[in-house]
Amino acid sequence: MATSDTQSDEMLSSDQTEESGADESERAVESRVGWRYTLTQVRSDPTALAGLFIIGFMTAVAVFAYVDAKLLDYWFASTFWVNPATDPVTVEALLPPVGVENGLGTGTWEHPLGTDNRGRDILARLFYGTRIAIQVGFIATAFGLFGGVIVGAVAGYYGGWVDDVLMRGVETLYAIPFLILVITFMSVFGRDLLFAMIGVGIGSIPVFARLIRSRVLSVREEDYVEAARAAGVRDRNIIFRHVVPNSFAPVLVQATLQVGVSIIIVAGLSFLGFGVQPPTPSWGQMLAQSRNYMLQSIWFSLWPGLAILITVVGFNLFGDGLRDALDPRLNN
Q1: How many CB atoms lie within 10 A of CB 262?
Q2: What is the C-alpha to C-alpha distance for residues 291 and 299, in angstroms, rounded to an integer?
Q3: What is the value of pTM for the model shown?
Q4: 11 class by beta-carbon count within 10 Å (0-12 exposed, 13-18 middle, 19+ buried)
Q5: pLDDT 10s digits, 37-66
Q6: Which of 115, 250, 277, 296 sits between 20 and 30 A of 228, alpha carbons compared?
Q7: Is residue 210 a contact partner of residue 296, using CB atoms and an 8 Å limit?
Q8: Considering only CA atoms, which of 189, 187, 205, 206 is closest in space to residue 269?
């Protein structure tokens, strides 16, 4: 009897140990999900932090340029922006950066990055161009994200003929070359920044729609979705309260990458004469103006090209870090 009681106590202790180990394992798994863990992972990832620093810096510059254009225009124009129309005597075109000398002159601190073909300060125009790039990147991506999530979520949740109709339309849109689609849209509605953002947003809808649909196809079969249906919850509420939030992680990563793509597309449109129109400065427009002066002043084209490169790399770095933080396979 004593031996039997001892064996029973040992089995009970073993069961309790196993249960305790299982509870700790569950808590460990739970600690590797959620926004708090994601933020912790992003903060510990040097790649994501580097991208976040670049995004934060460019956004701060864009905000400064916006406030300056709306509230402090006179102060900025009289201090930094040399306009040949108002200062025709002292203006010097195609000056090199400070400390550099070429056949056109010597760089000065008055124009740290040099001047363009009309004598305007390149640094000031880069600052103003940041405003356009960040605005277009965020708004165009938000437009495509919103449209793509709705189309993809509805198609994946309902399936059947709804899925066929919506996804065939998305595939038709996806088959049209991105740049041609945007140029055609702007040719019909106008060469305005607003239509450029809408055109780029429409062109990016298929990317988000196909991505979230693939996630919704699996999430819609989960038990909590079936329980919501059995409880009589409307399909609209199920989609946007249960299905979309649990399918959104890869879409969020794609959105950070898509911002960089949108910036490149709009810069290309400005280079071709679409989008932002003079005299409002943009990086693509600065590149278009500099193509005839590359042999005389390579700096004229170097600075806007570097601005585009650094900004896009920043969003890509942050997107890679966010993907690593949100990927459960990497977390486990």
Answers
A1: 28
A2: 11
A3: 0.79
A4: exposed
A5: 667 777 777 888 888 899 999 999 888 887
A6: 250
A7: no
A8: 187
